[in-house]
Amino acid sequence: MKAQEYVKNYYENYDEDNRLLSKHGMVEYITTMKYIEKYLKPDMRILEIGAATGRYSHALARKGYRVDAVELTEHNIEIFIKNTKKGEDVTITQGNAVDLAEFKNDTYDITLLLGPMYHLFNQEDKLKALSEAIRVTKKGGIVFVAYCMVDPSVINFGFVKGEIFNLIEKSMINTETFDTHSNPGDIFELCRKEDIDELRSNFNVTRLHFVSADGLTELLCDTVDKMDSSIYEMYLKYHLSVCERKDLIGYSFHTLDIFRKE
Question: Could you give the CA distance from residue 40 to residue 35 in angstroms, rounded to a whole number?
């Protein structure tokens, strides 16, 4: 089975539309939107590559921005269209992050690549996806790239859920470095900061932020979901205050690499 087919099958059976609606899921959304809003200016054009069901695209369109979205899976596109409200200046196109040929160079002020890097398993495809996102972004524009990280996954799936020896037996974990090896059937590709730095170093860009999108939230998801509103608000305040701390970022399930095209 091809990598794209694994991804399509996964999202046809996964409730992506509601993933960011729980208290613990909202941490990732609130953090990402905070950093997007930091760079928003009137009349900007935005492209979201791998838009899924449109959580970010619709939110930005409802703020009055012109948003174009690209999504691989038909199932997500159907929900994206269903979620579109009257008055939104938003489009959705079926496409692949590694080939955005129908989109012109230097078009967008902000480009969001918030999902595709999760599902690319070789260096060539990762570089193509970054290259395409940068190509369609205006000089001086801002690119947001999301990644899934190694260590919280090893901790959660390996130790908390007791699967460590099963993962080792399947050659998915190096027992010397505790780095991971994924293939398309595993759906998610995991990385560490040094991998992200190496990818980005191939392009003429300047990093602005490297952000822990959800921090320890996934490991604490049951606790976070049970918080009353006052404790939850304080938890969000804490998370946002430490989400760029270098000593904590690697323990976030999701990270954001935010950079400017030079």
Answer: 9
- pLDDT tens string, the chain, 262 residues long: the values are 677 888 778 887 777 777 878 999 999 999 999 999 999 999 999 999 999 999 999 999 999 999 999 999 999 999 999 999 999 999 999 999 999 999 999 999 999 999 999 999 999 999 999 999 999 999 999 999 999 999 999 999 999 999 999 999 988 999 999 999 988 888 899 999 999 999 999 999 999 999 999 999 999 999 999 999 999 999 999 999 999 999 999 999 999 999 999 9
DSSP string, the chain: --HHHHHHHHHHTS-GGGTTTSHHHHHHHHHHHHHHHHH--TT-EEEEES-TT-HHHHHHHTTT-EEEEEES-HHHHHHHHHHPPTT--EEEEE-BTTB-TTS-TT-EEEEEE-SGGGG--SHHHHHHHHHHHHHTEEEEEEEEEEEEEHHHHIIIIIIISS-HHHHHHTT-B-TTT--B---GGG---EE-HHHHHHHHTTSSEEEEEEEESSTTTTTTHHHHHT--HHHHHHHHHHHHHHTT-TTTGGG-SEEEEEEEE-
Instruction: Give the separation between CA 115 and CA 129, rounded to whole angstroms.
Output: 11
Calpha distance 217→41 (Å, rounded): 30
Closest by CA to 249, choosing from 211, 218, 209, 200, is 211
Q: Which amino acid is at 147?
A: Y
